[in-house]
From TrEMBL:
Biased composition, class Basic and acidic residues, residue ranges: 242-251
Record-given protein name: Collagen-like protein
Species: Halomonas llamarensis
Biased segments, Gly residues type: 227-241, 277-333, 365-378
Positions of region (Disordered): 1-22, 190-337, 355-419
Compositionally biased tracts (Polar residues): 1-12, 254-269
């Protein structure tokens, strides 16, 4: 493992860090031992510095040792027992790796091969004799794994939220000075599915339907036997609106391990752990139907000499296009277990809250397209009448609202072991 810390007083070369770990006595504070395993500057930590940086973890075995250090056998058995084994093929391999890190399963040859392709990985690390959270800190969505390694972890008006990001908190002592703006101290959340895109309205026709044929004189100056002007072509129906895009399914929270070895019993507020998986996104709005095409103008009547014929009638306007249906909402997804180790003596100061991930709502229906206007009547010849104006078409039908998602995501189990 290698480390990169933001510490102006760091002076030990990397090759000395493993020696630091071996020099620590059995009575050394746990956070220092963990820091040494991460390759952090132990002497800087002893001097009171808080180290913010990254550590490179080269194998899944090392990842398991560091990110799930405080898990009990009960935690691991429960994690493996909740695995459904019904994940899609693309997710099954990731589930197998998680079951190895947080559960009881061994790596199959296929899973081990997959892990070798993923590692090394970078972990964001905060280590310190005293780590104080004074503001709302959020990691993710889909950020690098986060490890908070503290001698004393103090919440003084702040909170920690991990969104689809693996979280490990390991503290030798916990103290709550005051609550923050959130309803929890630590939140482990999934990510809301993206809303489906709304569809744009369908386009209008750029010109009316073709006009009717003009009548012509059979002989110069004579309209006897000539036809009336032709009727304009009817307009075509407007283009139907497209269906709104589907709302995306939610994304589950990633595993979290929270190990508190002792807690200041004088803390005025409880330590609240909250979890909710990812809810479904809303469906997109259906597109508005396109307007019907205007009817064609009637053709001109014959007009020659002292004679004429009637103008042609205008064509009927096209019906408006139907509105598009709203897109369906996405489904909520079930959450992943959060494993908590907590001192039995301060059991009354621990609160756990779980919440369901709701499915997304269906998208709004698309509006109907306007009716096309009837074509104008053609001009009549001498002493004859103009054609009649064509009838307008009918409005299209509105689309149908999208259906809401059908699945609510159950929260991941918060499994607490007291020590």
């Amino acid at each position: 493992m290698s480390s990169s810390d933001k510490n102006p007083n760091s002076h030990n070369p990397a090759e000395e860090l493993s020696a630091d770990a071996s020099k620590l006595t059995k009575n050394a504070k746990s956070y220092l031992k963990r820091a040494a395993k991460l390759g952090q500057d132990v002497e800087a930590l002893k001097a009171g510095h808080t180290l913010e940086g990254t550590a490179t973890i080269h194998s899944i075995e090392d990842f398991k040792e560091l990110m799930s250090d405080g898990l009990t056998d009960d935690h691991r058995q429960c994690f493996s027992g909740l695995s459904s084994g019904e994940a899609p093929a693309d997710d099954a391999m990731i589930d197998a790796l998680a079951d190895y890190v947080y559960g009881t399963k061994d790596l199959s040859p296929e899973a081990k091969s997959h892990a070798e392709k993923l590692f090394p990985v970078t972990v964001a690390v905060t280590s310190g004799e005293s780590v104080t959270i004074e503001s709302d800190q959020e990691y993710g969505p889909s950020g690098p794994p986060k490890l908070i390694n503290a001698g004393t972890l103090t919440f003084d008006g702040g909170s920690i939220t991990a969104v689809t990001t693996s979280l490990t908190i390991s503290a030798d002592k916990l103290k709550i000075v005051k609550s923050g703006t959130k309803s929890y101290t630590v939140g482990v959340l999934g990510k809301q599915g993206a809303d489906g895109d709304d569809c744009p309205p369908s386009p209008a026709y750029d010109k009316p339907a073709p006009r009717g044929k003009d009548a012509s004189a059979p002989s110069p100056g004579i309209c006897t036997g000539a036809d009336n002007g032709g009727t304009g072509d009817p307009g075509k129906q407007g283009q139907g609106g497209d269906k709104g895009k589907d709302g995306e399914d939610g994304h589950t929270n990633l595993p979290a391990s929270i190990t508190i070895r002792s807690m200041d019993a004088t803390s005025p507020s409880p330590f609240v752990i909250y979890t909710r998986s990812g809810g479904g996104g809303d469906g997109g709005k259906g597109g508005k139907g396109g307007p019907g095409q205007d009817g064609g103008k009637g053709g001109k009547g014959c007009d020659s000499g002292c004679e004429g014929t009637d103008g042609g009638d205008g064509g009927k306007g096209g019906n408006g296009g139907n509105g598009g249906n709203g897109g369906p909402g996405g489904n909520g997804v079930s959450g992943t277990q959060i494993s908590v180790t907590f001192p039995r003596a301060q059991q009354s100061l621990l609160q756990t809250i779980t919440d369901t991930a709701k499915p997304g709502e269906g998208g709004e229906r698309g509006a109907s397209g306007k009716a096309g206007v009837g074509g104008k009547g053609g001009e009549g010849g001498k002493h004859k009448t103009n054609g009649q104006h064509g009838q307008s078409g009918d409005h299209g039908d509105h689309g149908t609202p999208g259906t809401s998602g059908t699945k609510t995501g159950a929260a991941g189990n918060i499994n607490v072991s007291y020590i």
